[in-house]
Design a protein that fits this description.
single chain; alpha/beta; Heat Shock Protein 90; Rossmann fold; 3 domains; five-stranded mixed beta sheet; five-stranded parallel beta sheet; 17% strand; elongated; His_kinase_dom; histidine kinase; EC 2.7.13.3; phosphorelay sensor kinase activity; phosphoprotein
């Protein structure tokens, strides 16, 4: 059992490499645009007759391409930072009396960190164009976030009324995307009552197997022909420059993706009401165990933990040692491979980061399996365009985790991979 030793690397970070790549990409874009102008935008079209819409569309495509690449690098580095924050807050939580002021402060840090984690996941979902997985979400948490937003956002000319059922329970959802939907509905309500004032009502209640979120305003309302088109992409009643026409279209897409429905009812002169229905999970308690998990997640075994970030390697050592495991934490994947080659039976589990200098986590797992084919491995990453859960499994990893990794999540997974007879 050993603490990680700090090692410095002179190679550029992944973010620095991405910035360089973006600069090169922008230069290539400029060259391509010049070539297109020289030949006309469409098959020899005269450059004096270029279509501005095509020009803007192509530029927007290029910008989104660059933004996606740059965002990927930022999310990777930010996930590493967030892993340290959440990890040490989690560790400290077990050292303070439950219910104390310090305990409550740590809970706030963890809640904010998880919110940031959800935001990053949404950014990655945007980059990959993949749907975010719906999962059991505590309705009260979503409502609390919404009410905090409204208190800070709404002017005094708009009165807010809340009708919240005391037994809201759970929904099958993605907390960050649901928050985006509700904020969109509330900001639209604020917009239509901005000049005249009015009342914004938020009503949340169980309805059969669903939970209904009702957002109602006392604004001017909409005519039937407007209400019938309100969820169409690019349709907007706002003044030019004040709305893209995509807010409600995206909201509907998110709700549908989460297995729910959204509808609108409106009468001119009598306001507008949006209803969002999201399904409740069959058994959320089976997915979310009791918070008193520190004892149930303890275990025995020998773990080789590899991450080139010293603070993350140290955090892994501390977290896993507290759970009862013998841990060797290292910051150099090549040295970790040599340790394993020197004594293949010394470890019951390999946990490695994906993006590291000299050797990637996927290559480390492949090399480890050449030495000992039955060694289970967990591959972790803040973001990688090369590896996801499916490819990690194809490469031989027993599990794949996205950073930031939380204490209970990792502990439960290790219990599944290290069998009691292996740890003897």
């Amino acid at each position: 059992m050993s603490n990680p030793s700090d090692q410095s690397h002179q190679e550029p970070t992944e973010l620095e490499q991405l910035v360089t790549q973006n600069r090169d990409l922008q230069q290539r874009i400029a060259v391509l645009e010049a070539q297109l102008r020289a030949h006309g935008w469409a098959g020899g079209q005269d450059t004096d007759q270029e279509d501005p819409a095509v020009d803007d569309s192509l530029r927007q495509t290029y910008k989104m391409e660059v933004l996606g690449t740059f965002t990927a690098g930022i999310t990777h580095d930010f996930n590493n930072v967030l892993s340290v924050m959440l990890g040490y807050a989690d560790l400290t939580l077990y050292d303070v009396p439950q219910g104390s002021a310090a305990w409550h402060n740590l809970q706030e840090i963890l809640q904010a960190g998880r919110r940031a984690k959800d935001l990053i996941r949404q950014m990655l979902t945007f980059i990959r164009r993949d749907p975010a997985p719906a999962q059991p979400t505590r309705v009260a948490d979503v409502v609390d976030e919404l009410l905090k937003f409204l208190r800070a956002f709404l002017p005094s000319t708009i009165e807010t009324r809340y009708y919240l059922d005391p037994d809201l329970g759970w929904i099958q959802s993605d907390a960050t995307q649901l928050h985006q939907v509700l904020m969109n509905l509330c900001t639209n309500a604020e917009y239509v009552m901005r000049e005249t004032g009015g009342i914004l009502e938020v009503n949340v209640e169980p309805v059969g197997r669903y939970v209904r979120f009702c957002i109602r305003d006392t604004g001017p309302g909409m005519a039937p022909d407007v209400a019938s088109r309100i969820f169409e992409p690019y349709f907007t009643t706002k003044a030019q420059g004040e709305g893209s026409g995509m807010g409600l279209a995206v909201a509907k897409a998110i709700v549908t993706q989460l297995g729910g429905t959204i509808n609108v009812s409106s009468t001119p002169g009598a306001g507008t009401q949006f209803n969002v229905y999201l399904p409740s999970p069959d058994d959320p308690e089976a997915i979310f165990p009791s918070e008193a998990i520190s004892q149930t997640l303890r275990g025995r075994g020998r773990i080789l933990f590899v991450d080139d970030e010293y603070m993350l390697a140290d955090l892994g050592y501390r977290m896993l040692s507290r759970l009862g495991y013998d841990v060797l934490a290292m910051t150099d994947g090549r040295e970790a491979l040599e340790r394993l080659r020197g004594n293949p039976q010394a470890y019951d589990l390999l946990i490695t980061d994906q993006t590291m200098p000299h050797i990637t986590g996927a290559d480390l797992i492949a090399a480890a399996h050449d030495i000992r084919p039955d060694l289970p491995a967990i591959l972790c990453t803040g973001y990688s365009h090369v590896v996801d859960a499916e490819t990690a499994q194809a490469l031989g990893a027993a599990a794949f985790l996205m950073k930031p990794i939380e204490f209970p999540e990792l502990a439960a997974l290790i219990q599944q991979l290290i069998l009691p007879e292996q740890a003897e």
